[in-house]
Amino acid sequence: MTQLNVPVMADEKAKGHHPEYLYWVGCAGAFDKRYQKVTRAFAKILNHAHIDYAVLGPEESCTGDPAKRAGNEMLFQMQALQNIELLNAYGVKKIICTCPHCFNILKNEYPELGGYYEVMHYTTFLEQLIDEGKLEISQDVFKDQRITYHDPCYLGRGNGVYKAPRKVLKKLGGHYTEMKRSGSFALCCGAGGAQMFKEAESGDKEIYAERTEDVLETNATIVATACPFCMTMLTDGIKMGNREGEVRNMDIAELMAANLGL
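Above: the chain sequence. Below: its structure as tokens.
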């Protein structure tokens, strides 16, 4: 595997350099083996586009989102205040997140505790790079693929980001198709609100199973996601239906990296 060079904020500060962007990797991007692939894919894109960025590396901690969603406000504030102190010490102004949960809490809930930053989800950043002509996209890589997109709740309904991921996907080529429940009417994957970290509640069907049925109805060969929780839940749904040979669950960052040959 080719070594991936990712700048670290502490190293950059030691050089007297202050990167324009902080890439907030998130817990899933750092520790989940599947989502580590997404982290690497996005870092490759940033390097390819010559973006001035850095990560916190071992200094990065959880944003506190799971604690807050589970009702532990004290733990959330402890984690958030610790992060804010670190971010302010580095003079961070702009943050890019691959996780919508990190994006949402940094953007909307950190300001209440004194953390004021320009926070962007990576799909919006990719849209910006495309508009600026910094990414040379091929229409041939996915030309034989049928692609659908699942809206993450914290990205779509939570923050109104619907156009950017779709614009990026349509630029990648292939045959784009929407699910019957999409946009503001999209069905949750089932893992938001700290549901990822607890056993399922009683009922007739898992939410991820219901959502996977929406995916399969499109006859898509690729379901694009933009959230680690959504990726986990939909991958489980595809496996449960024994449909791994027919449809792949790939993050938009992975699709972009593949299109660029990275």
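The mean pLDDT is 93.
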